[in-house]
Design a protein that fits this description.
single chain, 112 residues, mainly beta, Jelly Rolls, 5-stranded mixed beta sheet, 3-stranded antiparallel beta sheet, 2 helices, 8 strands, 10% helix
């Protein structure tokens, strides 16, 4: 599964994992030693994330139901994010947002 930023004509994620059940959303990225470029975790539904207990920083895109980016955060380990008005969250390796130029208002396409 991939995620493309169609507003910028760039692939953000080549290996997308889904967290849609209570337990997969609860676990998120906890327990992982690394988060490699090209990986991503879509948490749905979700409007807030944290990095408590994580070993690496992450980029976070908050998406509405049409997969428009409505907010962006960059979180270092052991930080709380800010709750957002959104439908789901896409967690990405640190630096992905800057490298891709992704901005609020961009449209993403999820290819399953």
């Amino acid at each position: 599964m991939q995620v493309k930023n169609v507003s910028r004509s760039i692939t953000l994620v080549k290996d997308l994992k889904l967290a849609t059940s209570f337990f997969t959303r609860l676990r998120g990225l906890l327990g992982r030693r690394e988060f490699l470029p090209g990986e991503g975790l879509l948490i749905e539904p979700c409007n807030w994330v944290h990095t408590l207990g994580m070993r690496f920083p992450i980029d976070v895109l908050f998406l509405d139901k049409e997969h428009l980016v409505v907010a962006i955060e960059r979180l270092k380990p052991n930080q709380f994010g800010t709750p957002q008005r959104c439908h789901c969250v896409l967690e990405l390796p640190w630096g992905t947002i800057g490298a891709s130029g992704t901005e609020i208002g961009d449209r993403l396409k999820l290819d399953f």
